Automatic annotation (TrEMBL):
The keyword Cytoplasm applies. It comes from Dokdonella koreensis DS-123. InterPro entries: RdgC. This is Recombination-associated protein RdgC. It is found in: Cytoplasm, Nucleoid. May be involved in recombination. One of its GO terms (cellular component) is bacterial nucleoid.
Amino acid sequence: MFFRNLTLFRFPETAVEALDDLETRLESQRLRACGPLELATRGFVSPFGRQSDALMHQIGAYTLLTIGGEDRLLPGSVVTEELANRISELAEKEGRRIGARERKRLKEQVVSELLPRAFIRPSRQSAYLDAKNGWLVVDTASRKVAEEAVSQVREAVGQFPATPMAPEESPRALMTDWLIHGKLPAGLALGDECELRDPVEAGAIVRCRRQELESDEVREHLKTGKQVYQLGLTFDERMSFVLGEDLTVRKLRFLDVVLDELGEESSESIQAEIDARFALLTLELARLFDKFGEWFGLPRPGDRD
């Protein structure tokens, strides 16, 4: 149940009150089946899977949520082909040109007839709330998907001012400096992956994987003015990840020293295993996010007030 990617949002301490009675609030937004004429539905499902009705899992200040979705798969090419056939048949039958308004009506008719027969694709998106430190963490590297998750939480709890991070220090400038001088903050080490870009519009892009980042080859790119947009890092020899210039975390992986703490014995149940993994996940990431705050300056909204 470990997250693989992290898109981070922050919310002020004043927003914590909105999380009171969260389980009841989530119930009103439980995922329902996609209707025959609906393209999609969104709602909350149990983090423990279909065998559980619980819509959240809480350990201290941390609350695990799962946003479910159902999308009807109706490719535009299918609609276009069927619409073209009907327009052709009608034009041939009545011997006239089909106007724009009638085309629109025919298209709506095609969609309404095909939708109930379309396959449904289910989806699941994990996220968690840290009420103590004001983090909303979504398991995705897609800003669009993350924003949809925030909207779903906001719809459940009412006003919930979770916003993207606003670092006081430029992550791009800092990571470029780290790579140029090889002087990283304590506990942080270079990985074997990076993305360098010329900051001018339509500038060159260099992606390195399984590459020694302190090599002359990488330094030559930096000398020409390229900057770091993504950088592979290892933190405290406990986790590795690729950090983006927007502070999105990709390819998060806990190293063996962390996984060993879960123990080798199999858990008695899915709930027990998720509980153990979620506790470990939030503990490790809390340490990382504290460091993010030190390195990049990430005050919790309201801290300056």
